[in-house]
Amino acid sequence: MSEDRNNQNPDIIDDDLYEEFEDEELFELLEEERRKPKPEKKGPVFPKWAFWLIAIMMFINVIAIIPKTFSLPAVDFLFKSAQLSTNSDINTYQRSIVVVESGKSKGTGFSISEDGYIITNHHVIDNGEKISLAYPEEGLFQGEVVAEFESVDLALLKARRVDGKKVEDLPSLPLAEETSFKEREHVHFIGNPLRFTGIANEGEVIGYTRLDDWEEDVLMLDAPIYHGNSGSPVINMEGEVIAVVFATIKREQHGKVGLAIPISYYHHKIENLEESQTPDQ
Predict the structure, then answer these.
(1) Is residue 113 part of a domain?
(2) Which GO molecular function terms does the record list (predicted)?
């Protein structure tokens, strides 16, 4: 959470998107869903037995008899992800999404090279604990921190095989050279929200915003972002990563929105790092 540095209407940022789903947020999300205007229904009506099944699961979930997994928003994004995954491009993107675990924290990362370089949020791995990485098809790897860019909440990791063998032929996502977009441009993002993995969803880019405790502007997304989405790639219609999800915030004009770090910030940090490591001639 951000500090009240100016003591006047500070930005309250939820950047703990890797933490477990709490009961209070569950109720808040349910109330939010209940208050939403209901669109005119077309086609087959949602069966009553399915509604009551979800309601029963929710009741059991709240009293903690089973793990906290099911919620109405969760059902929504599972259906959406299943729908989007029928798109061959989305299905290909999902192969590059990595589960990043460090101690008790769990978030998202995405592969950017065949030899296992991965981008995630700095706050996902800043606890000093051992890092584990899991690709959807290639399995488990050990994670090594290559670079940390705390000022823009990014980190570069390297996947290492447990058996010490060379890492190669891993799926990866291309990065846009710069963060460019049109207002309300349609984008996809893929991550590991709640206790699920590789969940695809969609949204729109609202534009830039400035946070109280950031020196750089970040992107606002009109998109359903939950705990576990930290480090999710924001992918444009050309299949390039233009930003990295890191938090949510409430804005008077837009309500609850997602926040994402422009990928151009990553490029700038890497360039500065390489320059600083180049020996003087």
Answers:
(1) yes
(2) serine-type endopeptidase activity
Known catalytic membership, residue 264 = no
Is 262 a domain residue?
no
233 near 241, Cβ under 8 Å?
yes
Q: Is 162 exposed, middle or buried (0-12, 13-18, 19+ CB in 10 A)?
A: exposed
Q: What is the mean pLDDT of residues 171-184?
A: 95
- Which CATH number fits the domain that encloses residue 92? 2.40.10.10
- Name the nearest CA neighbour of 189 among 139, 126, 145, 233: 233
Out of 96, 105, 230, 232, which one is annotated catalytic? 230
Rounded-to-integer distance, Cα 124 and Cα 15, Å: 10
What's the longest Cα–Cα distance across the chain? 74
User: What was the pLDDT predicted at 276?
Assistant: 79
Residue type, 25: E
Q: Which two tokens stand for residue 80?
A: 């959406």
* Structural domain range at position 108: 88-160
Q: How many residues comprise the chain?
A: 281
Other CB atoms closer than 10 Å to residue 137's CB: what's the count? 8
The average pLDDT across 69-92 equals 82
Catalytic residue among 71, 111, 153, 227: 153
The question of whether 227 is a catalytic residue gets the answer no
The candidate with the shortest Cα–Cα distance to 176, out of 248, 260, 116, 246, is 260
Residue 146, in any domain of the structure: yes
Examine residue 103 and state whether it is found in any structural domain, yes or no.
Answer: yes
CA 24 and chain centroid, separation: 21
Known active-site residue 153: yes
Summarize pLDDT for 115-174 with one digit per residue, the tens: 999 999 999 999 889 999 999 999 999 999 999 999 999 999 999 998 989 999 999 999
Q: How many domains does the chain have?
A: 1
